[in-house]
Amino acid sequence: xxxxxxxxxxxxxxxxxxxxLWLTVAIFLPLSAMIFFSFMTGLPNTGKPWSFTxxxxxxxxxxxxxxxxxxxxxxxxxxxxxxxxxxxxxxxYALAKLLKGRMREAIFLLIILPFWSNGLVRIFSWAMVLxxxxxxDTTLNAILPFKISIDLMYSYxxxxxxxxxxxxxxxxxxxxxxxxxxxxxxxxAARSLGASRWQTLRRIIVxxxxxxxxxxxxxxxxxxxxxxMEPRILGGRTGTFYGTVIEDQFVAVxxxxxxxxxxxxxxxxxxxxxxLASPVLRRATS
Length: 286
Hints:
Helix content is 78%, strand content 0%. By secondary structure, the chain is mainly α. The protein has a single domain, classed as Orthogonal Bundle (MetI-like fold), CATH 1.10.3720. Keywords: Cell membrane, Membrane, Transmembrane, Transmembrane helix, Transport. This is ABC transporter permease. Residues 70-277 form the ABC transmembrane type-1 domain.
């Protein structure tokens, strides 16, 4: 058995080595540098004297603006995840159980279309739709018998709309995979035994699709917490969140140590959230 195990490991190492080498170079080395920067008073390449300190992490607890923005970012991520679920789950169910053939392929194409364009293109497209005199405002005034003014730019709803548009495909795809794996005979058996559509959905479809829902929620929640492009462009002054503050530290203020410390605090909070959700994950996948 030991010899067989060594042979299996020997065959797996050449296949795993490129992936782990890439992860080491592209992820772990930059993270190591960021950890080093987060404990510094300044950058070594500036020529100024520097030393190690914990003040960058202490600033998060001393300045209430940082944890208030973090709470706002967590709320934004939860809200975007909720709307992605509300929009994505019915679409995934229709793709998995209702649509067939070319119609399914056409809907899939529309769903993954956001992946084919640059993120900035999507955001500025929404800016042209949501601003006063934009596409939405012009269309509604052309249809309605009375004049209205719709200007959602630089508002919280505009941020949510932009983020939902960017991340809802993740929810659709993950839910589709789990819904597609549900045997249709289970649904037919429930209906033949007198279960209503709501009972079938609540007691069969949703529990079996829960792993896909949770996977999609994780894929959406984690990046949205630290998002900064959509809040910056679509939110304006109201788009100040934890991710935008981190971006300012690196780009505008050039305070990399503080930006690195705030980034790792965000990473720690996300890991805590995932750890708290792990019992649900284990029950859903068991």
